[in-house]
Amino acid sequence: MNFSRYSLFALATFSAVAATINQEPLGPLKERPNIVFILTDDQDVELGSLDYMPLLHKHLINEGTLFSRHYCTTAICCPSRVTLWTGKNAHNTNVTDIFPPYGGYPKFVHEGHNENYLPVWLQAGGYNTFYTSKLFNTHTTDNYNSPYPAGWTGSDFLLDPFTYQYLNATTQRNREPPVSWEGHYTTDVIAEKAYGFIDDAVALGGPFFLTVATVTPHSNVAAFEIDLDDPLNSPLESIVGVVTPPIPAERHKHLFPEVKIPRTENFNPDKPSGASWIKALPQLNSAIITYNDAFYRARLQALQAVDELIEGVVSLLSEHGILDNTYIIYSTDNGYHISQHRLHPGKECGFEEDIHIPLIIRGPGIAAGQTSYLVSAHADLSPTILSLAGLAPRPDFDGSAIPLTSSSVLSAEESGERGEHVNIEFWGLGLPEGKYGFSLDDGKIVGFGVNNTYKALRIINSAKGYNLYYAVWCTNEHELYNLTADPGQLRNLYPGSESSSFKVVERHEAELYRLVQRLDALLLTTKSCKGVTCRKPWSVLHPKGDRYDAFYADVAGTTSVRFDKCLLGYIKEAEGPQSLEFDFEEWAAFGGRGEL
């Protein structure tokens, strides 16, 4: 393999963002555009990882638009990726975990998505489609051909159990048998495959869609056997060392020697925070903090190879003369926490570190050096890509195309037509990573994870002053945070919670209850929504646009979000009420109380 085709940089410093430049939308394209999607794995926004990627800034942020309020809807990779490629929330894909029986590639196939997801639609619309690197978890050396993933003109997938091994990858190209890349650095292997697919796409002619899905900066995961039917009781001879920090390329291991995790207010706080199992976490000791700082540096070092990949892709597109007719999208599957709320390295939580993720898009008609403050989510990306390809949205999408040009963004901001909410949901276990996250007792995993099932809403509306997170756990504990005043999500405002600052102020207490009534009704609508109900949940609650205080006062206490039990997957019977058991029209006809 020749890694010299594109220059590799040992990056010890990083450039500042260029001054904002307004780019006018281009005229009609002579050809349908190409689309390149670069997808990382477990990349944070809140901990500043983008600040350490100068080539990302140079080629994408400075030349495109940063969507600063983009969220995943499920903070773990496989469910998040299925949402991304189907345009549907996890409660509608029914892929809610990384392993069977509730998730992974076998579940994706079982639910019928292999015949009905983005590459299939793009191929039907006249696009050649290519994919390299990780597709889904539990896509393995045993099941890669049963069936083959549909919809790809060319593919070269990473396969489990070697997916997360930075120096021992196994890939499988098209219909060929798997090939081992032991001793080669995985991100560089993937970069070369991506460059090859661009060459192939140009040779074929016509528009193309290419996904380059690096596993960086995911933890390095050594191969191990696990009982997919009973992961809690899987015997592991040595869990310590199975999930370790990512491995940087040799050329990057010296970088950022003094960098530490940002010491924000929620970094290993003196007082416990959160709900359920999180509020019982002990404070991390100095040895763990030192380990976590090194873990954080390894993530930044590993991302340097992705930064170089970005420049390689842009350079090759330019060499072929197609850069000006290509959209490049950059994102990740979910975010990441390290020491916030006393948490060991990992994801799966509803905190901002885990759900707030990068989205950057450059291409024809997209303003350069701009930042968009519209709220968007992963369910919006398939609709957006179909829109870029000139194809119609599907009626069952839970998301909608993101406005991309300066004029469409401005129109959406002024009209308020763009949604202000993101539906957040999770089922299953909270899994700590790193050597301090696990221990063994008689050969069994201890601390493998506790039930982490919850439903939540993230609502941001600057014009109305909303910046809220509201969650209901399967334990029926509640969380409510005002992120304007409490960006670290340390002070739970839900009535009766230990940290509620409203308890002693009667007027504020009344205001808080009115807020909770609305949030609960909205969450009850989104927790099981489909299609337009997910996109416009307020239209379900108020089909005529009216919003009555008395309506919520009457609804509160009759039907609210709750769980009947904590399970490891999406079982509707355990999820409590599925919608408001309240007839607004009947209520109004019989003298419903209140004015607007």
UniProtKB/TrEMBL annotation:
<comment type="similarity">
    <text>Belongs to the sulfatase family.</text>
</comment>
<dbReference type="InterPro" id="IPR024607">
    <property type="entry name" value="Sulfatase_CS"/>
</dbReference>
<feature type="modified residue" description="3-oxoalanine (Cys)">
    <location>
        <position position="77"/>
    </location>
</feature>
<feature type="signal peptide">
    <location>
        <begin position="1"/>
        <end position="19"/>
    </location>
</feature>
<dbReference type="InterPro" id="IPR017850">
    <property type="entry name" value="Alkaline_phosphatase_core_sf"/>
</dbReference>
<dbReference type="GO" id="GO:0004065">
    <property type="term" value="F:arylsulfatase activity"/>
</dbReference>
<keyword id="KW-0325">Glycoprotein</keyword>
<dbReference type="GO" id="GO:0005539">
    <property type="term" value="F:glycosaminoglycan binding"/>
</dbReference>
<keyword id="KW-0732">Signal</keyword>
<feature type="domain" description="Sulfatase N-terminal">
    <location>
        <begin position="33"/>
        <end position="390"/>
    </location>
</feature>
<dbReference type="InterPro" id="IPR000917">
    <property type="entry name" value="Sulfatase_N"/>
</dbReference>
<keyword id="KW-0378">Hydrolase</keyword>
<dbReference type="Pfam" id="PF00884">
    <property type="entry name" value="Sulfatase"/>
</dbReference>
<dbReference type="GO" id="GO:0008449">
    <property type="term" value="F:N-acetylglucosamine-6-sulfatase activity"/>
</dbReference>
<dbReference type="InterPro" id="IPR012083">
    <property type="entry name" value="Arylsulfatase"/>
</dbReference>
<dbReference type="GO" id="GO:0018958">
    <property type="term" value="P:phenol-containing compound metabolic process"/>
</dbReference>
<protein>
    <recommendedName>
        <fullName>Arylsulfatase</fullName>
        <ecNumber>3.1.6.1</ecNumber>
    </recommendedName>
</protein>
